[in-house]
Amino acid sequence: xxxxxxxxxxxxxxxxxxxxxxxxxxxxxxxxxxxxxxxxxxxxxxxxxxxxxxxxxxxxxxxxxxxxxxxxxxxxxxxxxxxxxxxxxxxxxxxxxxxxxxxxxxxxxxxxxxxxxxxxxxxxxxxxxxxxxxxxxxxxxxxxxxxxxxxxxxxxxxxxxxx
Length: 163
Fold this sequence. Notes:
alpha+beta; single chain; elongated; four-stranded mixed β-sheet; 8 strands
């Protein structure tokens, strides 16, 4: 078994992100046109600020998740990092293999009772069925149960099933 398996999935943008990006772009275009027509100093400064804010909005909604499984057996550790705009990285969660109680496709009925109970859900999946099947991990999190949604590749699936 491999000591390190890494996989990156791009999260599909939802409807909310398209609306926010559209509004930000529309406001920027309007500000640029107003600046070119009126050419006021305060309007130029406001336009530059709006362009910078719009860049951050686009970076925020350009999201990828990197799954890193290090080690093997009961000592394996899964790290999930969120990458925004292909440059800002933040570790979202780390799970030791011994804290994983179940691993199956997200729609499996074994997780229904946990969803009904209202356990915490972490969605780090691609949110896109074209990328691959979304799986759920039932994990121990802060002395309680939690569901972790991911979109793993075949190597990660085999590693989880063999642990």
